[in-house]
Specification:
This protein is mainly α. It has a single domain, classed as Orthogonal Bundle (Ammonium transporter fold), CATH 1.10.3430. It is built from 15 helices and two strands. It has a two-stranded antiparallel ribbon. A hairpin with a 2-residue loop joins β1 and β2. α1 runs antiparallel to α7 and α2 runs parallel beside α4. The radius of gyration is 20 Å and the shape is globular.
Length: about 400
Amino acid sequence: MPTIDTGDTAWVLASTALVLFMTPGLAFFYAGMVRAKHSLAMLMQNFFAMGIVTVLWVLFGYSLAFGGAGNGGLIGNFDFIGLKDMTGAVSGTIPTMVFSAFQLTFAVITPALITGAIADRMRWAAWVGFIALWSILVYLPVAHWVFAGGWLAARGALDFAGGTVVHVNAGAGALALVLLLGKRKGWPNSAMPPHSLPLVMLGTGILWFGWFGFNAGSALGANQVAGQAFMNTFVAAAAAMLGWLAIERLKAGHATTLGAASGAVAGLVAITPCAGFVNAFAAVIIGLIAGVVCFLAIGLKFKFGYDDALDVIAVHLVGGALGSILLGLFADAGVNSAGKDGVFFGGGWSLFTEQVIAVAAVFAFSFLVSLVIGLVLKAVLPKGIRASEDEEEQGLDVTQHSETGYSLELVS
């Protein structure tokens, strides 16, 4: 009979809380980057994810993602509807209920990442419909493909904590929505600077803190792999921040706090698929590459004319794809016996090829289904999915929620 290890269970419980904390951190990170009149709407979009995704996960989400694990297929089954028959069940050395809670936090933050790309212009009703449908139709199948022994895992692709499932997936969905929504009023000619860089830095700190649970928690135990993933997460974020600031200083003539925040997050994104499969020196290299490449990727939105408000595509789509593909080069089976050797460790090009296939498959599926969801909502919602120019000018805080993030009236 499987035996529960209390140390492993305690670590995964703590990691679950850390990853959940990342969603409020993301909310502050994004809210500080938008203009003040949209800040509360951004917070609301992110916090709402913790509500709607959680209920869907308990009802059928976990079952469709992890039911029939290891079947090499496209989707799970209905064995765990309502989380039934899980009392006393064990996954590895932890209770299955704890594993389900841990995976729930991933399901929550993944669609929340999309909100940064669509900032300032999506109607609240449209977001409610989109996040519910996207979580069911996009996130659950992709989670099964990679995390639950679905077809990509069966082919041999690796993803320690969500480079494809979380970051490429959310980035592709963000790109589809951005193309449907169009540009913000005045973009790119009008300046739209962050209204609160202190909020951005606070959010970055919370994300970095929570990411230790995200990556090291994915070892599903308090063990050597968790320790390696913890260190790799630390150093990749640091290296990426330095890489971003160096290229920013070189190209723009100055290093900014926003650049430091964005660089750290880019490193965290890129190391996510690699965290438990590479050594610490490789994590430094991956972080440095991510900092430079993600900074340069911001220029794509100006070249191609899509308005990715808070650079979700440059950081999460590009960073997630980059980390997933670099894993094919830097993977070291000596770090984790459940992994493989990449090109630089004598493993040949097979893993690299599978990583490219996984990135391409997740991108294509998420982009196309996200586009269809957006088009359907645009057709069926009475006011469509885009706020009017007047509503955008007034701010989504007031027009969508009848509230404001800040009270600027003088108190007598």
